[in-house]
Amino acid sequence: MITIEKLNAMGVDTKQGLARCMNNEKFYIKMVQMGIKDKHFEMLEKAIEEKNIADAFESAHALKGIIGNLAITPIYAPLNRMTEMLRAKMNANYAPIYKPIKDAREKILSEL
């Protein structure tokens, strides 16, 4: 089961996330669970594999808002970088940039 302590240990800024959820720990945990399971993660990975920059941007941008509001820093930092690269339509290998996002997500998912 995910806890504030476990999220803190993973580098999540729970103080900021909780503040956005009216300091309601139960609500924040519920939002983290929903956010980390969002369909845009799979959509982003697929778009990256297919080198579809437009779809990858849409998914990354949506996730940036969700993950940013929850202050899930280990995912937000590389996701923010990726989103800006995609916004600029940079032709790059996005798989290595996505890997820390995927790894951090899987670590949180394993605690749910």
Features:
mainly alpha; 0% strand; single chain; 7 helices
At a glance:
The protein contains 7 helices and no strands. It is mainly α and 112 residues long.
Q: Determine the number of helices (DSSP H or I, runs of at least 4 residues).
A: 7
Low-confidence stretches: none
The chain-level mean pLDDT equals 96
Biggest sheet, in brief? none
Strand content: under 5%
Q: How large is the radius of gyration?
A: 14 Å
Inertia-based shape? elongated
Q: Report the order of strands and helices.
A: HHHHHHH
How far is the first residue's CA from the last residue's CA?
5 Å
Fraction of residues in helix: over 70%
Number of strands: 0
Structural class: mainly alpha
Q: How would you characterize this protein structure?
A:
With 112 residues, this protein is mainly α. Helix content is 74%, strand content 0%. The chain contains 7 helices and no strands. Helix 5 runs antiparallel to helix 6 and helix 6 packs antiparallel against helix 7. The termini are close together.
Secondary structure elements and pairings:
Elements lengths: L3 H6 L4 H7 L4 H12 L3 H10 L3 H18 L2 H15 L7 H15 L3
